[in-house]
Design goal:
This protein is an alpha/beta fold and 311 residues long. The chain is built from twelve helices and eight strands. It is elongated and about 65 Å long. It binds NADP nicotinamide-adenine-dinucleotide phosphate (NAP).
Length: 311
């Protein structure tokens, strides 16, 4: 076991993030957790790691991390315990068997993504054990970990955030968003709904291009332009907030016709049309709700209504 990991701070209960050599535990060594543990090692922090599949720790141990023999040993090893797990269920699976008394005075920095509700429940779970809980929404892939140009949103007790800011800033720039533990999770999910849908639209375009003998590289300039929505977002934002969906520059009926052209182009090419069919369906509902002459932004009002409860 490395002297930079377990026992580096004698397993003390300190959660003082101002100590530049503060010991840190990282639980969960997927691509993200590995990058995070690596960033802490790069900055000279004693690091203890634990992962369900221990072999994922090999490279980190070779670099000086200590490998805990159990999740409980990992929690005991540092005042700051970073969780980088698939979701909050994984947190309960990993930490549920740990003696509750071990958490007192420690801080769980939960960088696992999940819903705002589950983040709030996770914070309450930690509080029941006397631990602080910071919810984090990491807005970068693993390659951005260790860079101040990448950002993570945090929410939770402001004093806990401030006390640990230096440690958090080893990973990325740290933006505090508010006390509600669900807030960082909400902002993360807002980011992801746009990210996944946009990226899937790119996979869709590449599949269509491929069906016509074009490679991804052939459509890169077009893809970069099409996915740059800056002008549209800046135009629509004040109008949406003002409830102004007037059809002066675009009309939903036009949008529906266009969405159906996209769908038919997929079908003609023999390409899966699940995504464009869903888009066309949303437009169709908007038109059916009486918004044919309104701007496509009126879909915001349509989407606010749960699908099952429409008249
Ligand atoms: N990767 C990205 O680009 C990215 C970007 C932003 C945010 N995130 C978020 O960051 C978190 C970690 O990302 P990742 O890519 O490293 O995720 P991942 O590949 O899913 O790895 C997650 C870790 O969770 C562990 N795990 C999952 N279920 C478990 C269970 N029931 N019991 C014990 N351990 C369990 C895995 O252990 P095993 O190794 O044993 O399977 C692994 O160490 C996720 O919440 C993800 O949404 C990821």
């Amino acid at each position: 076991m490395s002297d930079r990991g377990i026992g580096g701070d004698n397993g003390d209960n300190s959660s003082n993030g101002h100590n530049s050599n503060a010991s840190v535990t990282v639980i969960g060594l997927g691509p993200m957790g590995q990058a995070m543990a690596g960033a802490f090692l790069d900055r000279g922090h004693p690091v203890t790691v634990w992962n369900r599949t221990p072999s994922r720790a090999d490279a980190l141990v070779a670099r000086g991390a200590g490998l805990a023999g159990s999740a409980e040993e990992a929690v005991r090893a540092a005042g700051v315990v970073v969780l980088s797990l698939t979701d909050y269920d994984a947190m309960y699976a990993v930490l549920g068997g740990v003696d509750p008394a071990v958490f007192a005075g420690r801080v769980l920095v939960n960088l696992s993504s999940d819903t705002p509700e589950r983040a709030r429940a996770g914070a309450a779970w930690a509080a029941e054990r006397g631990a602080g809980h910071l919810t984090g929404g990491v807005l970068t892939p693993p390659s951005g970990i260790g860079s101040s140009e990448a950002t993570t949103f945090y929410s939770g007790p402001p004093d806990v955030f401030e006390a640990h800011r230096p440690v958090l800033e080893v990973l990325t720039a740290a933006e505090y968003k508010g006390e509600d533990p669900g807030l960082a999770a909400l902002l993360y999910q807002l980011n992801m709904v746009m990210f996944w849908t946009s990226l899937t639209s790119y996979w869709q375009a590449v599949a269509l291009a491929g069906a016509h003998g074009l490679k991804a590289a052939d459509i890169l300039p077009l893809a970069l332009d099409a996915t740059n929505l800056t002008q549209f977002l800046e135009f629509y934002t004040p109008r949406v907030d003002a409830g102004d969906h007037s059809g002066d520059v675009d009309r939903l009926a036009m949008g529906l016709a266009s969405a159906e052209h996209v769908l038919h182009t997929m079908r003609d090419a023999g390409v899966d049309g699940t995504l464009p069919a869903a888009v066309a369906e949303v437009f169709r509902r908007g038109v059916a709700s009486g918004h044919a002459g309104d701007s496509c932004s009126s879909l915001v009002e349509v989407l606010k209504v749960p699908a099952g409860s429409r008249g």
